[in-house]
């Protein structure tokens, strides 16, 4: 089994295990599997922007917004030289071109436009707005916006997004409000992040809601190592996925919301067993 890195893939792993083992009667296996798979798929739009939003924080906090934009433009040019980066006032625009241009950052190929505006840049308050137009990685295409806030004194980031995205199977209208904190500020992103908040999305008129309760995620793990997801389906059914690290190689995933509670052990390689 391929080890997924995006946190949304947690649901897919649980779904795979359910597919082998079956579910209960009130919320049938098919309904539970569909709900869990949908929660995984719903994260694709966020995953597309996660990496490039992270790189857009590289400017000096506390300087004038125009100076910060100029510094950010220079940084982005150095990191993504295949793109066309321009700035005017406090706004930086990144043009990745077409997919055929093969503009790649950190192993991922992007196309489309990304506009970053540094609205506020004070030591106690930083606000950066993002607008994406036709942003794509060849799988997902996204249009929409996000606002990211943080400060020099607070390592957490508050992210609010409102986007429309599509892939070969669906068109999704999604929104969310999340706070992200480094698990170990001294170690940085390599130690993972802690996320709390909500995500809502609509597919073909069906509204879904996901609560994210202090979920801890590391890039090297196939599933979160702590916290829980609570998913409410369009029919009002509720599924909960709870994550607990057992040891460095194993994470326990508990699924409730069906007549039976399911407990799975997920290894670092992505193997799942009951």
Structure characteristics:
single chain, 274 residues, 15-stranded antiparallel beta sheet, 4 helices, 15 strands, globular
Question: Concise description?
Answer:
The protein is of the alpha+beta class and 274 residues long.
Can you tell me about this structure?
The chain is α+β, with helices and mostly antiparallel strands and 274 residues long. Helix content is 19%, strand content 46%. It has helices at residues 9-21, 29-41, 44-55, 65-79, and strands at 84-88, 91-95, 103-105, 108-122, 125-136, 141-150, 157-166, 171-182, 193-203, 206-217, 226-232, 238-247, 250-256, 262-267, 272-273. The chain has a 15-stranded antiparallel sheet that branches. It is globular and about 60 Å long.
- Kindly report the average pLDDT value: 83
Sketch the major β-sheet.
15 strands, antiparallel
Number of helices: 4
Relative helix content:
10-25%
Which assembly state applies to the chains in this document? Answer: single chain
Percentage of β-strand residues: over 45%
Low-confidence stretches: 1-25
- Count of all domains: 1
| Structural class assignment | alpha+beta
Rg calc: 19 Å
Kindly report how far apart the N and C termini lie: 16 Å
Number of strands: 15
Overall geometry comes to globular
- Sketch the topology as an H/E string, one letter per element: HHHHEEEEEEEEEEEEEEE
């Amino acid at each position: 089994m391929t080890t997924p890195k995006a946190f949304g893939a947690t649901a897919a792993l649980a779904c795979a295990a359910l597919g082998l083992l079956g579910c209960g009667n009130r919320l049938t296996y098919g309904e539970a599997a569909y709900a869990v798979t949908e929660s995984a798929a719903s994260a694709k739009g966020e995953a597309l922007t996660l990496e490039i939003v992270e790189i857009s924080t590289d400017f000096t906090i506390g300087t004038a917004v125009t100076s910060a934009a100029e510094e950010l433009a220079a940084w982005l040019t150095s990191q993504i030289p295949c793109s066309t980066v321009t700035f005017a006032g406090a706004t930086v625009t990144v043009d990745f071109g077409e997919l055929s241009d093969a503009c790649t950052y950190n192993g991922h190929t992007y196309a489309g436009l990304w506009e970053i505006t540094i609205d506020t840049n004070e030591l106690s308050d930083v606000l950066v707005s993002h607008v994406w137009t036709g942003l794509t990685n060849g799988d997902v295409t996204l249009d929409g916006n996000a606002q990211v806030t943080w400060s020099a004194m607070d390592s957490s980031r508050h992210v609010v997004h409102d986007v429309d995205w599509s892939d070969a199977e669906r068109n999704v209208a999604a929104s969310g409000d999340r706070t992200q904190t480094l698990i170990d500020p001294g170690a940085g992103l390599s130690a993972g992040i802690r996320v709390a908040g909500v995500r809502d999305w609509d597919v073909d008129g069906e509204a879904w809601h996901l609560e994210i309760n202090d979920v801890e995620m590391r890039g090297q793990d196939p599933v979160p190592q702590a916290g829980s997801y609570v998913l409410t389906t369009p029919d009002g059914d509720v599924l909960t996925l709870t994550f607990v690290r057992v040891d460095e190689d194993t994470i326990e995933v508990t699924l409730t919301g069906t007549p039976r509670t399911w407990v799975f052990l997920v290894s670092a390689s992505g193997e799942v067993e009951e």
